[in-house]
Automatic annotation (TrEMBL):
Transmembrane segments: 26-53, 91-117, 129-150, 184-209, 246-265, 290-313
Major place of residence: membrane
Family: Belongs to the binding-protein-dependent transport system permease family.
Organism of this sequence: Lapillicoccus jejuensis
Gene Ontology BP annotations: transmembrane transport
Record keyword Membrane present: yes
Membrane-topology annotation of the record: Multi-pass membrane protein
Protein name listed in UniProt: Carbohydrate ABC transporter membrane protein 1 (CUT1 family)
All copies of domain ABC transmembrane type-1, residue ranges: 87-311
Xref: CDD domains: TM_PBP2
Amino acid sequence: MTAPAQAPAAGGKAPRRRRPLSFDRISFFAVFLLVPLALYLYLVVSPIIQAFYFSLTDWSGYDNNPNFVGLTNYVNLVHDDLFWTALRNNIVLAIVLPLVTVVLSLTLATLVTVGGSSRGQTRGIGGSGFYRVVSFFPYCIPAIVTGILWQQIYSPQGGLLNGFLDVIGFHNLANTPWLGDPNLALGAIVVAIVWSFVGFYMVLFVAAIKSIPAEIYEAARLDGAGRLRTAVRITVPLIRDNVNTAVVYLAILGLDAFTYMAVLAPSGGPDNRALVVTQYLYTNFTNAKYGYAIAMGVALALVTLVVSIGVLVSSRKQEVEL
């Protein structure tokens, strides 16, 4: 005798039956969910909680029982002019670096993929493969080596840049102290960082543009759209996710930038014009002010989180509008 069929619930949908917990399901949850979650909590969440706790102490880095001082470190941080100077420089980097790097990378990626002849099959400019390899090369150089390289290029005494300016006739600029001038130091460092990363993001955008069907570009060409209009109205919207990812990573790089600053402006540059929070944080670590330095790290992490969420929310709104 067979059991009667179960009546469908109101609304016409049959009730979902829960599958029994078998050994396979339990082992799957344990291996692929519980173990990664436990590792994440131990390796990521736990250090964050510990860092926040030590930011509420006067820990010098050597004593095992630091005194709990509450929000004193954060109050001192608010009244620390040097911290605000460093944070301002970080914010400038977080805005300028993504803007310049993404525009240059997108331009180069467009040229080597769809910037070739307007006749025949859609293709990039001649020798695009060579340009792709050459532009990616700076990203393979370690950041510390890149810093030393540009330090020599900017040297006011026999540096490559000043020598080049002297050769082409700009003799009045041949002795410019690029890293020693308060008005030029931060911009000079931005150039070095952009040079290091523009090739990597160009390759990222090239891969994204390659995934766009060629028929779309063919249709735009038949409609009379020029290269600039095609890039702005077709390429950028279709690779928006890649662009947003690049912006987030470059903004985070701008909020760090410790390695480049430590080499090119080890003391924060003239008048602290190139000082960043991570440098100031490191100085406090070396002065045994661990609690205060960790408070800076927590504040910088919050700023980074706000910037990342802002970029992601902005990109989500743009997707909805599209």
